[in-house]
Amino acid sequence: MTVKINTQAGTIEISNEVIATVVGGAATEIYGIVGMASKNQIKDNLNGILRKENYARGVVVRQEENGVAVDVYTVISYGTKISEVSKNVQEKVKYNLETMLGITANSVNVFVQGVRVLPE
To answer: What is the CATH number of the domain that holds 73?
Structure first.
């Protein structure tokens, strides 16, 4: 699936993989996020944290009439306030999608798949 943006010069198509990479990059920049998690941990046989090249496995993008809906699967560090970190992820993802790709995010759902204790 792709998102199509019509301009005066023609049509721009942005794939879901590109959107997922932008979303994953935005989410991992937030303080308190250890990394991205797989949305299907049993199916993908991944229980660890996804690297940059696999962000698409931790993000689900659905096209809607006037934008997209995004599900983000994260791993949060121990000792951080989950609600505050999730709110920051939502704001950063919406901002990055609008500024980088020109796509409106109608909803950003954050799913916490795990909590990790970071070594000091």
So the answer is: 3.30.70.1350
